[in-house]
């Protein structure tokens, strides 16, 4: 901030950050009295930012959450149906491989053709898929279409090894490794310095995103963010992962992790140290993979320490930009009891929506159910467009004022 205040031509990233602070503050009225309920009773809506963020969503949230018959009756049925039977829209993507400072690589998938038909100041939405997920997943594709229909520029951040992203070092990614997301956001901001940046993350991608928001805190260059089906407390999530039918998800994810690892196993030959490569290569559970590889790669003494210190439930209190969290009360992978409700209530920048059903990455409800976009997609865009409208209304004038500040 100091650099911005004393420079006649402020850096664009700093100007973007300052513009966001002023525009969001301008939209807030701390003297607002308690509002009548603007959401349906079937939804839990709480948070310190509710007075600011709920009114723009009232049209969507005033309707009851109606899970699709036969599919939405059971959390496992909904989770599995969405994973295997939800449509996967065709979206032409243009891949950009980004080399990171540690010589690693991530893949950014942009919607093809955007550069020729969208102005450079169009808002940008960065998408972070869940564990082992990428731009090929149905929930990601539907969000791309939803945002693109609103004239937003979109890019999918495929983590190392995910979505066929190249792996160039003996390191993947973790729930708390923030180096890659930091470089991706900086890179996107440099490419489009006049655009406001936003991000949305699902599951582990949501956990990483919230941890990033907390790390950056007041210096975050994102204008707003959305976290969906975030496990939040990874210790609790790990406990539930080994119960009953959840073992099916555990084995499916560990199989995906093994598949990614096997493509790049030569990088890990003779790596030494505390790694247990055979355990990772043959992991039957996500915990086994994290024990053999992940926790060692990122300097944790035990898996439990890794899960505890990587949980974004502890980060919510430090978030300083508008954040919408959407969870399903019956999510088998992101347990309801792990949601940091009290910290969300205490943070004036956060709002939480909990649907009574939805499973994990499901939300088979709404006008487009059962095979179309999740119930969450329109809500996400309404929230982001509201913040963008505040940025647009207040931003241009603020930038001019900033340039006039003298020493």
TrEMBL record:
Annotated Gene3D superfamilies: alpha/beta hydrolase (3.40.50.1820)
SUPFAM superfamilies for the chain: alpha/beta-Hydrolases (SSF53474)
Limits of the AB hydrolase-1 domain: 123-361
PROSITE patterns tied to this protein: UPF0017
Domain of life the protein comes from: Eukaryota
Record has Hydrolase as a keyword: yes
Pfam families linked: Abhydrolase_1
Stored InterPro entries: AB_hydrolase_1, AB_hydrolase_4_CS, AB_hydrolase_4_sf, AB_hydrolase_fold, ABHD4
Name the record gives this protein: AB hydrolase-1 domain-containing protein
Organism: Brassica napus
């Amino acid at each position: 901030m100091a650099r911005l205040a004393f420079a006649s031509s402020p850096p664009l990233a700093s100007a973007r950050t300052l513009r966001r602070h002023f525009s969001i503050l301008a939209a807030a009225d701390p003297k607002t009295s308690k509002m009548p309920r603007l959401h349906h009773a079937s939804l839990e809506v709480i948070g310190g930012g509710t007075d600011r963020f709920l009114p723009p969503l009232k049209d969507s949230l005033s309707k009851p959450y109606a899970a699709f018959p036969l599919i939405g009756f059971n959390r496992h049925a909904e989770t599995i149906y969405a994973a295997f039977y939800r449509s996967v829209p065709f979206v032409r993507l243009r891949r950009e491989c980004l080399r990171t400072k540690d010589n690693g690589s991530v893949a950014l998938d942009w919607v093809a053709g955007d550069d020729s038909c969208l102005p450079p100041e169009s808002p940008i939405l960065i998408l972070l898929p869940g564990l082992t997920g990428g731009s090929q997943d149905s929930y990601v594709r539907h969000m791309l279409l939803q945002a693109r229909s609103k004239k937003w520029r979109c890019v999918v951040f495929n983590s190392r090894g995910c979505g066929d992203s190249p792996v160039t070092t003996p390191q993947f990614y973790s729930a708390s490794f923030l180096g890659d997301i930091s470089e991706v956001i900086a890179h996107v901001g440099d490419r489009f310095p006049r655009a406001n940046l936003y991000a949305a993350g699902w599951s582990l991608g949501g956990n990483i995103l919230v941890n990033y928001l907390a790390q950056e805190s007041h210096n975050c260059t994102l204008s707003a963010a959305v976290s969906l089906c975030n496990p939040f407390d990874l210790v609790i999530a790990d406990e539930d992962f080994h119960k009953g039918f959840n073992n099916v998800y555990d084995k499916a994810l560990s199989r995906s992790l093994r598949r990614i690892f096997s493509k790049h196993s030569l990088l890990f030959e003779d790596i030494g140290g505390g790694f247990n490569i055979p355990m990772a290569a043959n992991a039957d559970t996500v915990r086994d993979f994290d024990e053999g590889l992940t926790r060692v790669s990122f300097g944790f003494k035990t898996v439990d320490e890794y899960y505890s210190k990587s949980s974004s439930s502890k980060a919510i209190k430090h978030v300083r930009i508008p954040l919408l969290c959407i969870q399903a009360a019956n999510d088998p992978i992101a347990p309801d009891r792990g949601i940091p409700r009290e910290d969300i209530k205490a943070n004036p920048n956060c709002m939480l929506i909990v649907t009574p059903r939805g499973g994990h990455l499901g939300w088979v409800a709404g006008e487009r159910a059962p095979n179309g976009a999740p119930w969450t997609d329109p809500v996400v865009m309404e929230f982001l467009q509201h913040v963008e409208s505040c940025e647009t209304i207040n931003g241009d004038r603020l930038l001019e004022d900033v340039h006039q500040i003298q020493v």
